[in-house]
Amino acid sequence: MEHYTDVMCINSWQVKRYIDSYSASSIIGFSPEDLVQLGDIYAQSQATFSGVRGQQSSSEDGVDSENCEMKVSILQKQIDAYYKYLEATAELARSKWTQFGLKTMVLGLVLLLLSVAVHLTALSIVGKILVVCSKEQYKLLEDYKMLEACFPWRRLLFFGSSSTIFGILCFPFAFSISQGVGFPQAVAALKQDGFLLAVGTFAVGSAIGYLLPLKVNIYGERKQCWSIGEINLGCFMIYQGNLLSCVAAIAIVIIRAGSFLSNSFILVEGGVATFLLASTGVLTLQSAIQNESMIFKALLFLILNTLLGVIGVNGVSKETVIHPEQMTYSSAIFDNISMHFAITILAAVLPLFVLIFLVTRWLRVKHYSWDRYCLYTFYAGGILSYILILFHWILEDINFMPSITLPNLLKDTLRLLFPRLIYLLTAGLTVFLFYKSQSRVESVNSTFKDRTTVAAVAMLSVWSSTILLLLGKQGPLILLLAILQGWCILELQNVVKNEKEPDAPKNELWSDPLPVIQWSLLAVQLFFCTGHSCTFDGLRYPAAFIGFDNFNIIRQGVLLAIDTFGVSHILPIFGLPLLVSTKRSHVRSGECDLLQLVQVFLIHGLVSATMATLSTVCVTIQRRHLMVWGLFAPKYVFEVIGLLLTDSLIVVAAFYYF
Questions:
Q1: How confident is the model at residue 325 (pLDDT cuts 50, 70, 90)?
Q2: What Rg, from alpha-carbon coordinates, does the chain have?
Q3: Which of 543, 362, 557 lies closest to 466 in space, CA to CA?
Q4: Which residue has the higher pLDDT, 625 or 111?
Q5: 10 Å Cβ neighbour count for 48?
Q6: What is the DSSP string of 14-82?
Q7: For residues 641 and 560, what is the distance between their CA atoms, to the nearest angstrom?
Q8: pLDDT tens digits, residue range 134-187?
Q9: Contact 134, 509 (CB under 8 A)
Q10: Dihedral through CA 422, CA 423, CA 428, CA 432, nearest 10?
Q11: Cα–Cα distance, 270 to 274 (Å, whole number)
Q12: Which residues contact 180 (CB under 8 A, 6 or more apart)?
């Protein structure tokens, strides 16, 4: 027992030294109040230790039986004193390191729940405006008035500002009453948490203002767009022509969101996304067989999904993206240098030709074209980007081939020059496309679908070059498979419906949610197929230094974000309008294409908001779990960043397409 007491003493001293060292060196260490409290408990334990040692030495002169009992009681006091200190330290460390802040957690969860409700409400409003637009007696209003009817920004600004002012004024009184402190202390607390309070109250007030029963002026009539008591919500009116499609879409979203509660499912999230995507492919194949249409495309979709699933299961290490000597088809396997060059060139030229074909095909849509100068400028910039990628990869291979030597100065210059030119071309062409989207001259017979298709294909081709460069040599094959699988999704949404259905023409006014869910699952699948994972050590840091040797937190952070979220967020979101522009219809619904595009963006945003909400709920439930910081917290961080990026990209895409 004496030895155990000595161990407790040494352990307590080690813990105190670590806590003091951590608080002195860490930016987010323990607060001074907590350190003072722990110091007092440790001082009491040390005082007890000194007193106990004195009592122990004085009791050695007593009778043996009494001496033994006295010695046990003295040692027990000593052990209790150190146990009290260790228990207090463990409780403080547990509250600091193994759970999130309760205030911010509750606020974030409330905002996410309101975000899901806002998405559902917006879908309801858009669905009802589509009903109004489909009536022949109404003429189409301007696009901005229609969008303002869907998203009344003046109403949101009024409710948000009012809530912020009310919250700031009431906070000092509520804080002083609840905490039992004076008004000056409440004002000091307001200064400390004022920004969080302002953002939270503005967001909550705007969401509540949007969720309240809303009447908007559409075509000169006051229409009730949404009310709490209505059962026929617009989210259930999205696609009435195929009930199975709606049920399958909702079930897949719920299944994937529910899988976040299990650490086993999070570890194999890429496989889960592949399985769910294959399930939707089976439903599409069933519909194709029933309608005797597009059976080959449905089978091709399943085959491509299987190939991407195999790539995702095998995985691609983050080292193989940057170092060509570690590629599976490197010179260790192919001793023939010409064969190695041929594989490198083929891996880059094949997707290059596919993307050039898509751009040249869709930029020459009937009744819509750019002027010759702008068209040739875009062609030259896009083709030059892919040629520079090819040269950059060949240069990387030359560096590891002793038979081919180049001056070191030339190699270093070209190694840094080629990627920087690609980044510059991507930025310049992006600005060019935004300028053309706002100032282009349209022909008389140009339709919204034609313009949207051209804009989407052009933007995808521009950003694919930078993303391919960052992904490395395995990127072209994966991107080519993704292009084919995305083409299958676009084509399979046009499976011929049964013409005997009386509501078939009417139902074509609403967007089918199942292709949007497939598009989202394809984005998740591509995230894991390209070697990424929802862990901090899964970030491919070498990709942030392609074209640069020096570190800059903003520059390298942007490149790392493009590499991480390029194939899962940037390309899929800018490609979402293709689901509307390639949809064939038996009715004249061109005037409703804009609202259908809004629906597609809202459905995709709803899926992201649902996933982030369930991930937050999972972290809240599992905040005491052993793997909370190793698995659940990184997944939560990736989902929240993905939600913020999704919403931001949807806003940017809205400016670009609308």
A1: very low
A2: 31
A3: 543
A4: 111
A5: 19
A6: HHHHHHHHHHHH-TT---HHHHHHHHHHHHHHHHHHHHHHHHHHHGGGS-HHHHHHHHHHHHHHHHHHH
A7: 13
A8: 554 444 445 556 666 677 778 888 888 888 888 888 888 887 787 777 778 777
A9: yes
A10: 80
A11: 6
A12: none
Cα(614)–Cα(611) distance, integer angstroms: 5
Contact status, residue 471 vs residue 530, Cβ threshold 8 Å = yes
% residues pLDDT > 90 (the chain): 18
Q: According to the model, what pLDDT value does residue 342 have?
A: 61
The label of the residue with tokens 């989407």 reads 456
Which residues fall within 8 angstroms of residue 389, CB to CB, at 6 or more apart? 348, 418, 422, 465, 468, 469
Tell me how crowded residue 513 is: count the other CB atoms within 10 A of its CB.
Answer: 26
Name beta bridge partners: 223: 216
- Closest C-alpha among 353, 341, 444, 438 to residue 398: 341
The structure's pTM equals: 0.78
Q: Which of 606, 623, 613, 614 is nearest to 519 (CA)?
A: 606
The pLDDT of residue 327 is 40
pLDDT of amino acid 208: 84
State residue 394's pLDDT score. 79
- Which of these, 533, 387, 356, lies nearest to 469 by C-alpha position? 387
pLDDT single digits (tens) 512-552 = 788 999 999 999 999 998 888 888 888 888 999 998 988 88
The whole-number pLDDT of residue 385 equals 87
Number of H helices, E strands in the chain: 24, 2
Q: Is the dihedral of CA 404, 406, 408, 413 positive or negative?
A: negative
* Mean per-residue pLDDT, 276-305: 90
- CA-to-CA separations, 126 to 119, 147, 595, 601, 602, in angstroms, rounded: 11, 9, 7, 12, 10
Cβ-contact 351, 468 below 8 angstroms = yes
DSSP string, 468-479: HHHH-TTHHHHH
Q: Is the pLDDT of residue 30 over 80?
A: no
Whole-angstrom Cα distance, residue 491 to residue 503? 22
Residue with tokens 């439930």: 621
What token pair was written down for 255? 């299944």
Cα–Cα distance, 311 to 328 (Å, whole number): 13
